[in-house]
Amino acid sequence: MQRFQHAIPAGLIALVGLWVCFVSYTQTPAAAFAFPRLVSTLFVVLALWTFFKALRDGTAQEGGFSRQEILRIAPGLTVAVAYVFWGAKFFGFYTGTTLAFFILLTWYDPADHRQLRSWVMRAIITAGFMAVMYCLFALILNVYTPREIWS
Amino acid sequence: MEFLYYFDDVFTLWAFGMLLLGTVFGLILGATPGLSPTMAVALAIPFTFKMEPAHGLILLGALYTSTVAGGAVSAILLKIPGAPANIATTLDGHTMARNGDGKRALQLSFLASLFGGVAGVLLLIFATPVLAKWALVFGPSESFWIAILGVTVIGTLGSNSVVKGLLAGCIGLWISTIGFDDILGTQRFIFHSSLAGGINIIPALIGLFAIPQVISMFAKGRSREDLEVLSIKPHPLRQAITEVSRRTRALGIGTTVGAIIGLIPGVGGQIAGLVAYDQTRNFSPERAKFGTGHSEGIIAAESANNAMVGPSLVPLLTLSIPGSPTAAVLLGGLIIHGIFPGPNIFRDYPEVVWPFINSMLIGQILMCVFGLMIAGLAANVARVPRAVMAAVVLALAVFGSYSVQLSMDDVFVMLVLGAGMYFLERYGYSAAPLVLGLILGPIAEGNFVEGAMIAAAQNGVLPYFFTGTLNMVLIAIVLGSIVYSVWLELKNRRQGRAL
User: What is the ipTM of this complex?
Assistant: First the structure.
């Protein structure tokens, strides 16, 4: 799997490029797709070059992920995705943000979770931050959240 | 001397208030590791929607200037550059602070930033109208090549891999075509209802610059960084002023290198400090002292990275080509306020552009004064735990993206683009060419279509786009930047193998 670490994303990009190229050359009117055709042709050439280079070089290339990093990122990214795609609507904009903020803070805070003090600190930070956000966006900038989202 | 007529506009209550706010917040944000100037400006753009264009731009300009200078605080006191532009400052700045001269290092840093910054903005004031007049002769074909040049230069000179840099630029250009075609109204690449209105620049900028930072903070997990903030002992300011004024070589080299690098589209401040530091060391008779807390090292690095700020806006304002990634975000800020940079910018929007530029000049002085006053506080802010920073930036990114059009679709796009960019970055792609492609895509396409229409009535598309002195020069620069970058990459690879 490690050997294909660079080839998989490069392959995915090449697939996107091929799709963009296919759509650009098959959709009408042609005039609306003249610029996308130009861009997508270059896109495909560069993406295929990168893909074959990744296949050839294998693990010799720099970058990529370790298993440990993926495990560290996964909880935070899951919370972020759940918050944006579901939580903000389900709980309401500000409540969803408060929950996501507190969960992320708790998960990644290196402080001892057995101490009550660390929980109180996190709660205070969350409440303080949300108060600032509410004042800034709802009261000063007049940003209205949608009706179904409690503001 | 037209700019003198607009100085009054900076001293109105709102304009000056924005300048102060941007300067103070910029210094604090700049000192915070992980918050780059580009990200700070991107996150601030939504706050400027309700403002007058000039006030919004003054806020963004002040943030740009002071985040670059503020990065020196954490570079000196924590040995963590607040921004990539401050890497060279750590070399002598932190050593000087370790030797007990933290205050002196900060004073030298802010005074050098002031000198470099003022010189850079003066270059911006005097060079921009000249370049703008020259750019008036550009037709659609030249403007098309200029846009392509912007993407190419940042994709090649600003990336570690030429192919990946150009590919990222192509991805950005493609993303810019999503939505309805401007001329025929045809739907293009709308594979999800969220994309029906196209990709809004601001949520895209926020996602591409802020979300990768958030995820990279996640990637560090719960590890604690016990940062030691070095104490600051008093040091007379007068002595620091005398010292800076005596170090003319470091100031001169730093400012010149920074200004030249700022003028080159796409290169940005990351390398300005390092190149200036290296050149000053080469020309200094006290070369052996570099790295041991030598004042010339700090002065060269800081004058360079602030001298870069003004000139990086010259190609932005006249040709729509940003001189740095942060300038690219500023371009987004200009467009959102209905200001389209180009040769006519000083004719069409003098009441916005001149106060903005003048505010950057005054902002340099405020940056120096406040920098010296709040450096200690800013260093403590830099110790904010990563978990708090990640949560704060994520929430700001969501609220900022939502507030652009009051649409959750923008928030979805922001998160998807940002998460995608993080994964791309880990495989060697950089955000800057993608952003440039996204911003310059509509300019390139508009001129391409207009040029094609003119060409159809003349000799055909190929002669129209590939002949004429200016076209040839621009094509030569595009190809030259690619060839030079390939040569540089191959050379570095060979050197890497030799080691």
Answer: 0.91
